[in-house]
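Sample 1 of the test manifest.
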Amino acid sequence: MTQIVVDRKVGTIEQRAKLFRGFADPSRLSILGALCGEPLVVHELVERTGLSQPNVSNHLRCLLECGLVNSDRDGRFIRYRISSARIATLLSDVDALLDVVAGGVESCDNYRGR
Amino acid sequence: MTQIVVDRKVGTIEQRAKLFRGFADPSRLSILGALCGEPLVVHELVERTGLSQPNVSNHLRCLLECGLVNSDRDGRFIRYRISSARIATLLSDVDALLDVVAGGVESCDNYRGR
DNA sequence: GCGTCATATCATTGCTCACTGATATATTAT
DNA sequence: ATAATATATCAGTGAGCAATGATATGACGC
């Protein structure tokens, strides 16, 4: 009888904070949310998010460097996709938490939004 | 036969970003991580996190306003606890995602850390 | 009351990041 | 080669936030 040992490496506090910060921006959330549905090329992301093209590209570079998305060239297009289904999990868990704390988050003005 | 309809309200992009930003700071992550173990009073949080007392209080005010923690007065102490087990879920989700992307997150220097 | 411990408040400071606008690179078609 | 489309790069700018230090409030015991 074999035993599977998962032993998840627990990230450092700084790594976690850095990863959370990757999600802590409306523009990146829009991009990731769109990519959770299906892989998309840059100009499609620009259309759907309403962000400027350089802005989308800048965020994509960051997301790519962090390993949150992957890219494949397709002719003159570059198609981006999320790198792991765990990203979708994280996003839906945040919505689950918002079910509980949405009101408080809304009224908290320590952050005035960016 | 009854059917249970969950219909989760999906938060707005801005709400999600704001909630993520609540987690996107090493100090707040330390505090929340400590509180996931057990409820603690302020000076215990100060000891365990190594943060200054005003700093901890400032972050607690924010976390309280957002509804991520609750507080109860206990004599001259004030005991804080996380408001929902979903917070712990979210934190473990991030560690699960870090299993996949830790290297990339580490090397991404679009954020230089705070 | 007075002193002490526990926590909260607030202004200031310095750093960091998101966005823009201009430009560069890459690919395909004519 | 030239034009057109698709994407990337980058400096500059403005705004926002985390931490500190000083101080204020609150609770308990003497």
